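Hi everyone, sorry if this is the wrong subforum. Our group has a chain we'd like a structural model of before ordering constructs, and none of us has done structure prediction before. Sequence below.
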Amino acid sequence: MSTTVTERAREKTYFAHAMAIVESEDVGPNTMVWAFAHIMRGARVGANCKIGDHAFIETGAVLGNNVTVKNGVAIWDRVIIEDNVFIGPNCALTNDPNPRAYIKKSGEALTATLIRENATLGANATIVCGVSVGRYAFVGAGAVVIRSVPDFALIVGNPGRQIGWMCFCAERLGLAASARAGSMVTCRHCGRLFAVTHKGLEILYEAHPPVEGVA
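Answer:
Right subforum, don't worry. Here is the predicted structure as tokens:
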């Protein structure tokens, strides 16, 4: 016997505010969907996500686990958000580089965008479709990203440009954006050691062991 709408609602393991619209049947446990947010049928949202007021998640969009979507964010078809991503208020994601009101596109005619795990997209940032934002990358408020972003890169401005690097601990690293491959830096806040690679930064050591007598 098929599962009824009432039975599905009883099995629901996420929270949805009474003023939210959740049409998708693929929303993970412990996710919280706040007032006036809309998750369309066919969208996928992982576990432990937080979907803020007036957020919109379109059919075909994919969100991983522990994603924070702040108020006023729209996530469109062919946008993939990996685990632990933070998307600030009114961040704009896109899926069509040359839209016209009278030309309708869907599916493969749209352009994919990938936001890699643990990245941060600041308030009012714009992510032009067709790019990927690297792991732990940090896109500053109001930046306009028009090309792919390396892992751990710090991006600001319009058009977006890299001005440095951000640590796992969300503090800025003391390394120039132009540092050559093989250059290394240690975070003065958490002690992680990094090296520059062709993909951005790579963590070499999670943290140095504590030194006796040093606070």
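For your construct planning: The longest strand covers residues 200-205. The mean pLDDT is 93.
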